[in-house]
Amino acid sequence: MTSKEQKIAGFDPNGLAAPGAVFGLPFLPSEAEVVLFPVPWEVTVSYAAGTALGPEAIREASGQVDLYDPRLVDAWKMGIWMAPSDVSLVEKSEKNRKRAVDYLEAFTVGSLGEKSERVLEKINSACAEMVDWVEDSVEFYLSNGQLVGLVGGDHSTPLGYLRALGKIHGSFGILQIDAHMDLRVAYEGFEFSHASIMYNALRSSAIEKLVQVGIRDYCQAEMDYVQTDPRVVTFFDRDMKRAHYEGVTWQQQVEKIVQCLPQKVYLSFDIDGLDPKLCPNTGTPVAGGLESEQVLYLLEQVIDSGRTLIGFDLNEVAPGIEGDWDANVASRILYRLCNLLGESNGRHRTFAP
Ligand SMILES: [Mn+2]
Predict the structure, then answer these.
(1) For 298-325, how does the pLDDT look when each residue is reduced to its tens digit (9 = 90+)?
(2) From ligand 1's centre to the CA of 271, what distance in Å?
(3) Residue 8 domain-assigned (yes or no)
(4) How far is CA 300 from CA 254, 295, 341, in A?
(5) How far is the centre of ligand 1, averaged over its atoms, from the C-alpha of 154 (Å)?
(6) pTM of the full predicted structure?
(7) Residue 207's CATH number
């Protein structure tokens, strides 16, 4: 028996979760088919802060998640492990977040001088470093043959991961669940803003398609961008709701969404794509949106269509001041996402009973 098999044999999936380990699972980093990579970073947040606390809040809440997966028998045996949050990254995020607040004050009152330009340069280069660091870190796990789920942080965090996947897969499509298009060009002067993640991603030819779902808060320039880039397909929340009111089923809508995606699919899941009752403390909540099971159904259909989920991120989760509701919702979604990622890449078969 390998050490992993011994752990599986000795683990009680019905028991209380051990604190600290994600989902209470007993695996070593090298024994995990899916590695969760936390990026506690929020520098360019435009409204409420708190998403840098997301990964650790999710880790804590994950102990409450029951391990039975309705789709996959003994899903937990595949092995999920979450890397520790990098302390120096947290410090850098805080330092640059303060810089960003000062810069935005000057920006808002229209008093940008030479000093604020220098501050902006510092912020942009710190963000560029974060992107490079994510790319290198994720490449390490991918080169081990492991699958990666990135846990933000704000929505600027997965750009380095997308670059790493581009090197391995050549090209792929992004399925984006979000209230926002995130197609702004250097929002508020920030080159790597959470509001620019998809604009930045699309600068690479590795992204052959961007399919956006749940969109309900966007500006004219973003609408114009969608018109000019044939790779982008947007499913607006308003249109999907109206179709639903008029009798179109979710299954029918999902079929259309899935048809827009290429063979290889990356999921970028901004929690604010959901109804804000499920994520009241997220940075920029917008009324409307999706139920968590609607998104999971969509993903299952992506996989059942024969497409491959090559990776995902879950971002913009903020725990808020009281309670752990946002992290509770997010950790349950995260567990199902990990299992679907493993399933889509044939990683469950090895450990089936
Ligand atoms: Mn977003």
Answers:
(1) 999 999 999 999 999 999 999 988 878 9
(2) 8
(3) no
(4) 10, 9, 10
(5) 8
(6) 0.96
(7) 3.40.800.10
